[in-house]
Design goal:
The structure is a single chain. The protein starts with a helix and ends with a helix. The protein has a 7-stranded mixed sheet with strand order 1-5-6-10-9-8-7, sandwiched between helices. A 3-stranded antiparallel sheet has the order 2-4-3. It is 42% helix and 20% strand. The radius of gyration is 40 Å and the shape is elongated. The C terminus is likely disordered. It is α+β, with helices and mostly antiparallel strands.
Amino acid sequence: MENKRVNEVKEMLQKDLVETDDLKVLDDLRVKYLGKKGLITELNSEIKNVPNEEKKEFGMLVNELRNTFNEYFDKTKEIIDTKILNERLEKEAIDISLPATKIELGAPNILEKVIEEVEEVFMSMGYDVVDGPEIEEDKYNFEMLNIPKGHPARDAQDTFYIEGDEILLRSQTSPVQVRTMLKGEGKIPIRMICPGKTYRRDDDDASHSHQFMQIEGLLVDKDISLSDLKGTMDVLFKRLFGKDVETRFRPSYYQFTEPSVEVDITCVNCHGKGCPVCKHTGWVTVVGAGVVHPNVLRMSGYDPDVWSGFAFGFGAERLAMMKYDINDIRTFYNADLRETCIFDREDEE
């Protein structure tokens, strides 16, 4: 009786197992035979009612039916899935001969562009670009730069203090130089620049800002002199403003360098002939620099009898104003993209 029922389901299965390209039809067959109330499922549940001497044969027949259906189902589903995928790929094929979609790109900010140009010049000479905290300790911002507490130079910097007189917004990026020397432990040469934002209590006007981008540099090695600094400045400003630009040194005074100099370049507006920009002198002061003071080297772990170096610093806005003929530093901090970004002529048209 049980084997008769198995044969009936087998005959029905053979009739249903015909080619189909419809996933729904295939799924309906799965439910019909292997679902919770499916025909093969019901046969399987009847095993307990089969006499013991017939159970083995009955079970083998039911398993054969299940395996037959599973093989058919898997093979047919694979065929249908492949067909559907091929049809989709045909419909969604990309025509590479069509014009590409134009993606609008932003224009570079003038200030960022100048900073990147300076970084590229120094990296080509083997310098590292180093960053440091904007919230700084008095120790790094002043004391280790040969500016002890009570020194008049602190008044000139007019610093933003946050906690007492120990924590402050850095008034220069020189603390990054100190931190870099301390990492060197007085044993290795240093070549680095540190672009970054600085803060001073200043009244904003056309040439001053309470926050500005400063770029400072430091080289520490053996047998370094002012002539090395002069050569470095020549390379920098010729790359930025053209090969005809000349540089000159004038004596100055800074607490962290000895001797100290101010670096002038020929006016990029009149090319040294004299104009209102350079006050008819033909020269414009752009950098404060000098040979690193022995005290600064010593406090950072470098023996001044063995090591020497030079340091320099300048405002990025100052260079950008000269390079792009901008006469108000506040231009860099407004929201007018026509003034603060560099656009190609084609974009403007």
